[in-house]
Amino acid sequence: MVRVEELTKRYGALEALKGVTAEFPAGKVTAVVGPNASGKSTLMKSILGLVVPDGGRVYVLGEPALKNPRVRAKIGYMPQDPRFPENVTVREVIRWIEELRGRPKQDLDELLAYFGLGPHLEQPTRVLSGGTRQKLSAVLAFLFDPEVLILDEPTAGLDPLASSRFKDRVAAERDRGKTVILTSHVMSELEELADRLVFLLEGEVVFAGDLEELRAKTGEERLERAVASLMEAS
Amino acid sequence: MRGAVYKIFKYTLFDLLRSRWLGSYAILVGLMTAGLLYLGDDPTQAAVSVLNLVILVVPLVSLVLGLMYHYANRDFALLVLTQPVPRGSVYWGQLLGLGLSLTGAYLSGVAVPFAAYGALGMGEVDWPTVGMLLFVGAMVTLVFSSLALFVGVSNDERVRALGIAIAVWFVLTFVYDSLLLAFIILAQAYPIDRWVIGISMLNPVDLARVLVLLHLDTAALMGYTGALFRKFLGTGLGTATAVLALVLWTVVPAVLAGRVFARKDF
Hints:
The complex is a heterodimer. Chain A has eight helices and ten strands. Chain A is of the alpha/beta class. Chain A has a single domain, classed as P-loop containing nucleotide triphosphate hydrolases (Rossmann fold, 3-Layer(aba) Sandwich). By secondary structure, chain B is mainly α. Chain B has one domain (2-263). The longest helix of chain B is centred in the C-terminal third of the chain and has 45 residues, at 219-263. Chain B is globular. The mean pLDDT of chain B is 88.
C-alpha cells in the first residue's frame, strides 16, 4: 500500500499540490486522473522521490519514502516516454538495472518473450522505436517483482497486441496483491484496468474512491462521462 | 554509496566511450596537435601553440559536450533515480564519467602525436613541457566539465543553458583579460600587483596559461600576470598556488551542482 499525507508542493507561484492526502491500497489498480496541471505528475513523482515535496509525508508499504532511496527497491516505474543511453544495447541496459537492484525476481526470458523484446536484445537503444522502448521499460518495471507499480501513460506507443498483453500483466499483478498506480488519458483503458480513482483538480483531491462510488455519485455509467461530470461540478 | 557511484561512473564512461562525438573530439585535438607539431620545426614552440588550443577550444568543447551529454541522458538519469540509488551517487558517478572521458579524449589527442614524433625520430620532445601541457589541459577539462554540469543541473531549458555556457566561455576567454588590462591601466599609479594575482585566480583560463608559461619560463610570452606570479610567488610556489586554484575551480562548481542536484525536481 502507498499512502500520501498532507503533501504540498509549490513551483514558484504555482501551487501544484495543496495538502494532498490519498491512499493507494494493495491488490487494487488506482487511476490518478485530472486535467493538465492538476498535480498528477507531481504526486506520482513525489512517491518516486523525483520531486522533493515542500511538506507532507509519503509511506510505501508503511515505510517513510521521502529521502529514503531504499524504498525504491519496492517500486517498479514506467515513465511516459522512456529514454536510455544511446550507445548501449537493450541487454546492457537490463544488466545495468540488475546491477543497481540486485537479482531479478521474475524470469527475464519469459518477460522478454511476453513483450516480444527478444529480437531487440543486441540493438543499441538509439534505434528502438517508441513502442519498443516502452516494452523495455515494462520489462524493467516487472523484472524485480516490486510490490508497487507506478505506470505513467504506460500503453502510449504500444501496438494493440503489446498493449493488450501489458494490460493482462497489470491485471495479473493486481490479482497477486500488488499496488498499482496508473495514469492515462485513455479513459477506456482506465475503465478496463482501474478499480479505484483519485481525481485531482488544481492540486487538490476532488474525489477518491472505487469506480462504483464514482458512478453512483455522478449517475454516469461510463468512466469518461463520470470524470467529465466531476470536472463540471468542480 | 561508493559502490553505486562506481556503477554510475562505469555506465557513463561506457556510454561515452562508444559515442561518436567523443572519438571525433579526440581525433580533432590529435589532428590540430599533429598539424602544429609536424608543420613547424620546434616541438617546444608547438607545445606553446597547443597551449592556445587548450585555452580557446578545450573550455568550449568541455562545456558544450558536457551539456549535450547532460541533456541527452536526463531521462536515463530519471530512470536511475527511480532505482534504490542515492541521488548523490547518480550525480557524482555522472560527473566522474563525463570529466574523465573528456579528459581521456584530450590526453590521447595531445599525447599520441608527440609520442609518435619522438618515436619516429623527427626531433627531441621536451616531455616535461608536454607533461605540463597535458596536466593543464586535463585540469581545464575537469574545471569546465564541472561548470557544464553546474549550468546543466541549474537550468531545465537546454537552449538557455547553452547560451549561459557560451557566455561563460566568452567572458573567461576574451572579456576577462580585457577588463583586467583596463584595471591595470587605470590603477597603474597604485600598488595593485597582489590584487592582479588575486583577480587572475578567479579565471581558470588565465591560471592554465600562467601554469604552462611559468614552466616554460618564457618571459616574452609570460604577459603581465604571469610575470607577477613569477615575481611574487617564485616558480615553485606560483605553480602550487595556480594548481590549487584550478583544483578549487573544479571542486567548488562540482559541489554546488551536487547541492542543486540533491534538491532538484525531475
